[in-house]
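Form 12-C: Joint structure prediction
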Amino acid sequence: MNWIFFFEQCLNGLQFGLMLFLLVAGLTLIFGIMDLINLAHGSLYMIGAYLVATFAQASGSFMLAVALGLVATAIIGMAVEVLVLRGLYKRDHLSQVLATFALILIANETTRAIWGVQPLSLSVPAALSGSVELLPGLHYSTFRLVIIAVGLAVAALLYFVVVRTRVGMLVRAGASNRQMATAMGTNIKWLFTAVFGAGAMLCALAGAMLGPLLAVQVGMGENILILAFVTVVIGGIGSMRGAFIGALLVGVVDTFGRAFIPTLLRTALPPSLADAAGPSLAAITTYLLMVVVLFWKPQGLFPAGS
Amino acid sequence: MRLLRYAVLAAVCLLALAFPQLATWADQEFYISVASRVLIWGLFATSLNLLVGMGGMVSMGHAAFFGIGAYVVGITAVEAPQWSGALLVLPLAVLVTGALALVIGAISLRTRGVYFIMITLAFAQMLFYVFISLKGYGGDDGMQLLARSPLGSLKMADDTVFYYLVLALLALCLLGLARLRDSRFGRVLAGIKDNEARMESLGYATFRFKLTAFVIAGGMGGLAGALMANQNGYLSPNMLYWDQSGTALVMVILGGLGSLWGGLAGAAAFLLLEEVLAAFTPHWQIILGLVLLGVVFFAPRGLAGLFARKPR
Amino acid sequence: MSAPLLETHALCKRFGGLLATDSVSLSVRRGECHALIGPNGAGKTTLIGQLSGSLRPDAGVVRFDGRDVTCLGAHQRAMLGFARSFQITSILNDFSVLDNVGVALQAVSGSSFAFWRPVAAETALSTEATAILDKVGLAGLASRRARDLSHGEHRQLEIALALATRPQLMLLDEPMAGMGPDESERMVRLITELKGRYTILLVEHDMDAVFRLADRISVLVAGRVIATGTVDEIRANDAVKCAYLGEEEVD
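Section 2 - Result
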């Protein structure tokens, strides 16, 4: 094994894990505080990516596009919360699944109607398209480093807001004890909306950052949604710490699985078989991780409220 | 109300029996296979309704059994063609998926609520990726079947004959479920859905009852998958993918949770809606989404709520 | 009064930093009505949970009829003859009152892995269920949905469910909680009828009821049993007065 390759995969895992965390942070809070299974969370990620890509094409500035895309997605998210999701908090999980499944259909088809079926291209801004020599012989993409930096900064900011501020205290109280949160009355309604808006903004940020690396297309939301839910469940529903550690764990396991399992298989199996089985086995590793975690800890790694 | 319900039921049964003749008479034979698809989806949704509606176990991985049921047909056709008769391969599909449900259920039922949703989803997704990598059985291209599983001297290639086979199996399953619902087991299952802790303290080993229901639902889902493979002459890993589980769940909620006819009614409504809307606009999914939202907010008990019988 | 039917030895249960049950040793004799009293938060419901098997103790032993049942779950203990009524009403809300009792009876009469025969056709079950409803005073409400009953009727149904499993030992967790005086009186009379036929462990806040019903009383304070004795002994006990009864009088 090659150490440079290994180190590079560690950075890739960290980068993917941090982006996953952006998605999962909102998801786990909404899940924990409002007891809402929001299948449409991935749609916000898709909408964010489409908006950023569109704004970038129109304005030519990646930074401006990200700023506009974040605000627009937050507004869309809050509108959806007020119009639809608010009516679902007190409903059972099944109604929530059906309603948010319906939202996915609407979001995907509307996106197709506006932007067509071809994937959009969102390119890395020129200033960040190069690479940096981190170690002798290790050239790493500048843009990916920026993603890591942004992810860490957002995580630190979220940590500060959730742990150190009054709003954060309310949110945490709500995540571990829903009765208390609802007992606090009408203000909490708008707190929910604000949390949802913030969650939508984080989705858009993840969409903007991953857009240049993956394709901006219809269906991108569902692929990552499943991974995000897996992460929430591994970390423990409603736990920010669980979301962070779970996201890094899933990011690293997923990346390592893709990077190393095919190579490892090739040492044991004939190449044709290894090439066929490798990617699937890699895709299975995250699910396997979740099954193993839930087998030992049926409430996830960090059950909220304990 | 009661009379109306029986009238509707009788009309539906008559329509189901006479459908191929009506379609032939109207020169629309194409719709016979559409109807078979509706019935098979109905069977699949009904099996999920046993879990979700009667047992309160919300599974997002029911596609695992649908897909594996189909692969039992596909793999048998390749590896052991002498066993590919419907009388062998359909029970085999039920057995294999039932055994699979025993394993998945034994692990998944340790968890509850959302964790259960996610762990069942995980098992189905893992199987999806396993079958993508099995190039020997088509990988992500899936498998073509040369012919439908033969059954005695029946002409299975004839869509009408196949339709009646599906109808008969669905009727058997519905009859079985109707008996199960009113049996001792069914009452215990309903009790567990209502208040599991109470059932424990009354002396019921609730895990065993839930696992049994999971196995029955798995086997029935496997049968639906085996029939679907036969219907389409084709099967692929997509039958294992999570959107199949999601679609079945939507059908169940649409039709009516825990209602005997809920799965079938939901499947019929969903597929017909798809068919009708698609004729109107290419962006029919937007309308479908709005209709589903309307169901959640205005008809929370599904279609069955419109013909509800009094609470027990 | 003979050998103990239910015995615990040094039972401990900890929730985070709180020792909810602190080395509790308790002995309930066959046939007696043993009351467990104590101020709010003394750990009574936690103790009942460990006795009924829904909570696993961190340390200590629970013995039933001389047999160690510490590791048995709630359903296994129910099969041995434990029955429990819950402090917060726990019934099958969507079932009819009759079916509530029917499903409880079904647990102790034959296997429930029967998939074909309609349970409604089992007249033995419904006859016995009706008799039990008659005993607890709910006979007129058999076909009502359990959810729609009044609070007092819910409490009566709790007792009916406990009776239906043909128990030896009934763990009654505050059967009079939230009841008006008339309803309480009816419940006291019902439990009086059960006395002697079943061994009863009664958790209750209503002191009048406890003094009328109990043969012996144990007092639980902050997770510890501070006294056990007859009604008169407990009334005379200074430690109890100080820790518990005194507080009641101040209220």
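Section 3 - Comments
Chain B is about 70% helix and 0% strand. Chain B has a mean pLDDT of 91.
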